[in-house]
Predict the structure of Receptor-like serine/threonine-protein kinase.
Amino acid sequence: MASVGWVVQLLLFFNLCIVDTLFINHPSANLSTSWINYPYTNRGKWIFNDDTHVIPILALGNDSYPDFCFGFLRNGTSNTFFLVVLKIAIIPDSAFRDYGPPPVVLWVANGDHPVKANATLELTGNGDLVLNDVDGGYAWSTRTSNSSVTLLELADGGNLRLVSAGNVTVWQSFDHPKHTWVPRQRLRINSTLTSCNSASNFSTGLFFLRVARNSLYAFINTKPPELYSTTRSSSFSILDLKRSGNYVTYEDRGGYFQYMMLEPDGHLNVYRLDDGYKKTFQVDLLEDSHYKNCAYPTVCGIYGVCNNEQCTCPGEISGTSRYFRRLDANQPSLGCAEVTPLSCRDTRLHTFLELKNVSNFRFKAQLFNIDAESCKMACLKNCSCKAAMFRYQDNISMGNCSLPQQIFSLMATSEDVFHYIDLTFIKRRQGRLRSMEIGGERDISSVQVSSLVRKFSFEDLKQATQNFQVSLGRGGFGSVFDGTLENGTKVAVKRLGVNVLQGRKEFLAEVKTIGSVHHFNLVRLVGYCSERSNRLLVYEYMCNGSLDKWIFHQSQAQSTLNWETRQKIIVGIAKGLEYLHVHCNSNIIHFDIKPQNILLDKEFNAKISDFGLAKLIDRGQSHVSTAAKGTPGYMAPELIQRGNVSVKVDVYSFGIVLLEIVCGKKNSDLSRVEYLIDIVKRKVEEDQLSDLVDNCNKDMQCHIDEAVKTLKVAIGCLQPYFRRPSMSTVVKVLEGSMEMETITDYNFLTMFPDGALLEPTDVASPPVTASILSGPR
């Protein structure tokens, strides 16, 4: 009778979902086992009612049905497969009439590298799980290679584990989250969830979620990433996020299976599988209480305007829509396109379409206390700027200005709710020249610099660079070219772009700052040119390029620096900063200390460069008010939090650079979940700083004790500003005439200290690119 019942049950499943009922509870596998992505195996193939195909590898059974599964998944009729962990939802009701939805994908191994049929997954004898495509090409691996591994296991909650003797976890999928978070999954602070491109395409999407101590922060992955929402809480009606040490654990409050998913459109939705295993939406943790869906960056596509969750193109309602058209007349949410695309070759034809009470998902001011016309003019002078966004409160003539370089969805804002008014001026191209030419500049003849700094004509520098023929790379706000003066002196010539925002301001700052100071560890300004819109800076030539090329090991064939050379560079940077902070007539804050702005001469002497963001302050002035500026990853927390800062923002940046020099790693690296500063926190608390010393050079390992002492100096430079040492103190510590103060509490070692803004701040510095004033090594 039991066998007859089994047959009846199987037949009832057949039309909507075929399951190999013999493969129910096989949650583990031993070493040296391999699986081929081929349906006709002893594990069979599961076909769900949406045509999802699953070839199971491991399954965790529950009441005679598989509950969780690890295996290959094919969506619909595509010929690509993903290696996934699934929550199975196929339990019928008591009358065997109603089947649940297709499985929920909890984790994806190879989202960006799907494989074809007959791909091979191998649990190797050395404890590594490796996925290769049918042609033998590498697709994914746990990268463990740990000889203590004895078992691959699918554990409760869908956690895939590599386990050693004694049930010790060597690797687990819970430590490498993708787009979902399940109850009892513990995530390290600063780890991320990343959205998929779509429900069927698991490649990396536009959005990511960062886990903080008391909140979740959601970003759209632009350059730099932009914050679009935050939870501002760790406790909700249906779940709690409980912090313990450096980890946050998701705890649900119900009897049904619940999970959190970062959707392809940026929503952070919580679902549950109820009695019938039907997927039920519970809440969007990021929902804006006023703007609802309109607050999401892509709700109406590029250039689309969201108002009461309805999408239109700019000017469509007012009848001036001839400048933008819908991408699809039947689907407004797909966004809009320019009728006549903008071009940097005809900037004099650029003008604006004005939209009142319209802004974007995250207004971030870059210019403060200016009028709307100045905001528009700043955008016209920058070809990369796509719109001038102006916001004011009581005084229509003065407000703040945002200059986005990429337009996502716009949204209608409410003056009654927030008591400010938004004006958005979208740049567009008109059909004829404007009557007044924009952007012409007079010769800047009032620049006061040292008599040792020569003023060149533009024709002089065209000849010196052979008409700007040999490019050395890009620096702040311009390109750098190889040059030779008439007397045979090699120089590097930086030419500022004529349409770069604040290019004139950056040019003046650099000429006035570096043209008036002289120190062995500052790059020397040979001369400058200022003729109408032509702005150029002439520097001494640095044959070994910028520091980042020597410490970040872009290729294994690249030689690395020994300890003595790194020490020399470190002390040189410190002495250069000490001179700027203490010994100049007007003390100088550099604001953009990073390896790309440290140049090396033929003897590997360090020279600080790129003074375009620098600010001169009176000797008796300890603090200065300024907008946030610099490069994310190197900016001191107080610079992001306030605008009232001191020279110690440079000390913080120096501390980050010091970590990078000794460790040979970038603080912010997309290939790592954690920032380097967070890894340093963990290692110093474990008294294992020596693990971080760059091992790409044997000489570094021979001087590991000195390297660790230097790491401790770097940590001292990263303390809160009121405990941070001066550069004079740092120089003495590095030279051995003073000891660094002992530190016992390392909680400050994080990129996101409590109370600091997490969102990447719009800054005046361009993206992190090499500021090269020399040719390749």
About this structure: Confidence is low (pLDDT under 50) at residues 1-22, 92-100, 432-447, 755-777. Residues 2-176 form a domain with the Agglutinin, subunit A fold (CATH 2.90.10.10). The CA atoms of residues 34 and 665 lie 35 Å apart.
